[in-house]
Amino acid sequence: YYQRPDADHVALDPGRTSLGGYTAEAGVAKVGGAPWLWELSAATVSPGFELNDIGILTRADEHRASGSITHRRLGLQGFARQFSAGAFGHAAWSYGGVRQATSMGLFGNAVWKNFWRSYGQVQLHTRALSDDLTRGGPLMGTPQAWSIDLGLSGSHAAPTLWSVAASSFFDELGGWSASLSASVSVRPDPRLEVTLSPGVTRSDVSRQFFDVFAGGPSATFGNRYVFSRLDRSELYAQLRVGYAISPDLTLQLYAEPFASSGRFHEFGELTEAGGRTVRIYGSDGSTIETLEDGSHVVTDGADQFTLWNSDFRLRSFRSNAVLRWEWRRGSTVHLIWQQNRWYWEGRGDHVGPSSLFRSFGDAGEHIFVAKLTYWLSFR
Predict the structure, then answer these.
(1) Nearest CA among 314, 307, 312 for reference residue 347
(2) How far apart are CA 352 and CA 197, in angstroms?
(3) Is 97:87 a contact under the CB 8 Å cutoff?
(4) How do beta strands 117-125 and 145-153 pair?
(5) How do residues 136-186 score in pLDDT, each as one tens digit?
(6) Which of these, 17, 23, 9, 21, lies nearest to 96 by C-alpha position?
(7) pTM listed for this prediction
(8) Least CB-packed of 11, 70, 208, 219 within 10 Å?
(9) What are the angstrom distances between the C-alpha of 224 and each of 57, 218, 281?
């Protein structure tokens, strides 16, 4: 465990599992009426707060505050039936006064005359300091970034439900990401429903933590905190099928082929605690050599160390088939078949649609489960 009141870090007793702590949250909002709605909230989690096994805690040592204001118009004439637009903001900082995040943005939502729905959002993320980018090391600066989210969906009362969403992100260091997802649900028969939800993502992460090596400068406390860029691609398709064979006998199917790749490139080390710049290997008197196995040997003065090959290209196929029979009131039988197929290789070239189809034939495991439930009545 480390706490970082400043740019330095202080090691605490590793056997001390609980320091004692607290958490609190408060908010006030106007959620009804028109045309103006607003919301304010604040929360705090002390550094020593610990949930143990009663819940999930993503982070401690944080104050955060957020707010939003919305202008809403209902019962409109013309193209739209309903429209709302507004602004929001969010800030977070540690108990040591380190500003961890500040963001603000604008958003808009509309219900159109044909009952289609749309939304859009643009957000600015200002520069801040991260206490987890170096994985237990010093604070590190995060870049200014922008994100955009758009979405469109059909009428909720239509026999065929559909939606499409797109998002993009880019920062001042050249990092970016773009994703597109969709969903369509059809009911060709009252007893049958089919839903397909595919998606694709491409990104190039500007600051991806890689490893820590000794022998760094005093500005980073004698360690080298190595980062890289990460070129990623991802494809998936989720299929859900529900079929009622009879009122007491149903079949549920779920299948998801998935493929992803990652290529680490442009390696370098953090130049100073609290900074956001990285000294790229292969410049400033250092050299980097790529070996046949994909690893890299870095030479910097008298120091030499190896960056192992972490590139990956993987695909998987997971599915569940559940047959449920209620053979008497309250008593059921479940027959379950689960597949887990996967494949991995140490190269990072992009995946394509063919990778999804190839996942069907990969090696894996099959799991069969039978479950019987019997309802006992003592009346």
Answers:
(1) 312
(2) 17
(3) no
(4) antiparallel
(5) 899 999 999 999 999 999 999 898 999 999 999 999 999 999 999 999 999
(6) 9
(7) 0.86
(8) 11
(9) 29, 10, 12
